[in-house]
Specification:
15% strand; four-stranded parallel β-sheet; Rossmann fold; 13 helices; single chain; alpha/beta; nine-stranded mixed β-sheet
């Protein structure tokens, strides 16, 4: 049975909001709910009072209005509605070709030929609950509240998966796949699964666009024909079978190329910048009234896309980072006053560094972008390292690449994707540690390890391979269901407590 998850519209997605922004309530509320946090104002008696007004999207809310929940819900539903090709074209659906009924016979069923006998489809009205915790107070750990009373408001998003009805004739479809941005474990797994699922629907014309969006306009970069035979074993290697690049041509030029190539479905595998590009392509296709479904698969090794439980490549990166941490530990443990320093990926979030540190059990200090810190002074990190060398004899430090940027000289330079080029905090930390201990006359043997490209270039592990399979399947299901301007992922599976009798 196909696995399912959720789908989110680009226009409603807040993928540009990272976990770093979620730590501070004002930005978190603006990212997740579309409005700024409740402002404090002084009452006539001088005490602080909450000003019970907010702005979700373009909607003014007054929490004194008994109908504020209904207005908020209507605005949410509007912002998270999925764009569909029937918004532009007057089309009638046809029964899906994704069934495999001839190969399936449900238990106890005598007639497996009936389309109603196989219950593997997702109803178009199915929804997934995005927010699953009912916070009792806005002081609860991690609480995300809309109003001062932390009222329960349901956030529903569309469930992903195969539908009974589709809006494309598979034999007439030309589908294209493109991988953008940097490398990430699992790219080949997603490519492979998209091709497999397209062929199950009956698509014969599948092509790969080489080297990201550049493949649409760079002379000499031809389409790469894809089929099951071609992609059968690409998941056994890291990297991208199609190649990657950052940046790209103007949206109009890309859509000109899509139109000239007669592409009906475009699958974009990438992160925030790639999603922004996919959204622009989707909007331009609509403007030109082209029957093209643009569907994305969220890719970021940093695991920092809002609403998503996990993005592919993250588990593999954490697992691979263990090798670097273990090496740093052995070096530090084996040296007199050894200091092992590891820098891991994480531009604006420290999920890789934090998870790798927690799972290794060998890290003494973990520095991430979400938490501010000082290096110097009585309560600084360097002072703590002195204490560790004095008490333990060695220490191991892990830093995320985006940590401590406020302590470094800022650069206005950007890469091809428009991302600010960060100063190298790992090297800075290495130099600061050496200088600090030299200045106080204490020997410190510092070993610095930066496994960045080793971590992102390796093959996906089992956990990520399964996630890539589901994401690839759901991307194709979404396109055949007629959606465009969407992305997919799994959402909100928190830990809970259940009484023992429920297991008995």
């Amino acid at each position: 049975m196909p696995l399912s998850g959720m789908a989110i519209a680009f226009k409603a997605s807040t993928s540009a909001c990272t976990a770093q922004q979620l730590w501070g309530h004002p930005t978190r509320d603006q990212c997740q709910h579309g409005f700024t946090h409740l402002n404090e104002r002084k009452s006539r008696k001088g005490s602080a009072a909450l000003h019970a007004r907010a702005i979700p999207g373009n909607l003014d809310l007054d929490f004194g209005d008994p109908s504020w929940k209904q207005k908020y819900q209507e605005d949410w539903d509007r912002r998270f509605s999925l764009p569909h090709i029937t918004d532009v074209f007057d089309l009638e659906p046809r029964l899906t070709t994704f069934s495999l009924k001839k190969n399936r016979s449900p238990l106890g069923a005598s007639d497996a030929s009936s389309p109603d006998k196989w219950n593997g489809y997702v109803n178009k009205d199915d929804r997934a609950l995005l927010k699953v915790i009912n916070y009792a107070s806005n002081t609860s750990a991690g609480a995300v509240c809309i109003d001062p009373d932390c009222s329960w408001v349901e956030h529903w998003v569309h469930r992903a998966g195969p539908r009974k009805e589709i809006y494309y004739e598979p034999e007439e479809v030309k589908a294209a796949i493109v991988t953008c941005g940097g490398l990430c474990p699992g790219l080949n797994d997603v490519i492979r699964q998209i091709v497999f699922t397209l062929e199950i629907y009956g698509v014969k014309n599948i092509v790969g666009i080489q080297f990201g969006y550049r493949g649409f306009f760079e002379k000499g970069l031809k389409e790469m024909p894809l089929s099951r035979d071609v992609v059968e074993n690409i998941n056994l290697a890291g990297g991208s079978f199609l190649g990657v690049s950052r940046g790209g041509a103007k949206t109009s030029e890309i859509v000109d190329s899509i139109q000239a190539r007669r592409i009906d479905m475009l699958f974009v595998i990438g992160g925030n910048g790639s999603h922004a590009g996919a959204n622009a392509i989707h909007e331009e296709c609509r403007k030109r009234k082209l029957k093209v479904s643009v569907v994305a698969v969220p890719k970021t090794i940093d695991n920092d896309i809002l609403f998503m439980d996990k993005t592919f490549g993250f588990d593999t990166a954490v697992e691979e980072a263990q090798r670097a941490i273990n090496s740093a530990y052995i070096e530090a443990r084996s040296a007199y006053h050894g200091v092992g320093l590891v820098k891991l990926m994480g531009r604006s979030t420290g999920f890789i560094a934090m998870h790798a540190s927690l799972s290794s059990g060998q890290i003494d200090v973990c520095l991430i972008p979400e938490v501010s810190f000082t290096l110097d002074g009585e309560h600084g990190v360097l002072s703590h390292l002195e204490h560790l060398l004095e008490t333990k004899g060695f220490c191991v430090v892990c830093v995320a690449e985006g940590a401590g940027q406020d302590l470094l000289q800022k650069s206005n330079a950007t890469d091809a994707s428009g991302n600010v080029i960060l100063s190298d905090f790992g090297v800075h930390m290495q130099q600061k540690i050496k200088k600090h201990f030299k200045d106080i006359g204490v020997l410190a043997d510092v070993k610095y390890i930066d496994p960045t490209y080793m971590v992102r270039a390796c093959r996906a592990n089992a956990s990520d391979a399964i996630l890539c399979t589901v994401l690839g399947q759901n991307a194709v299901h979404g396109a055949f269901a007629g959606f465009s301007g969407i992305t997919s992922g799994s959402v909100d599976t928190p830990f809970a407590m259940i009484t023992y009798p429920r297991f008995c």
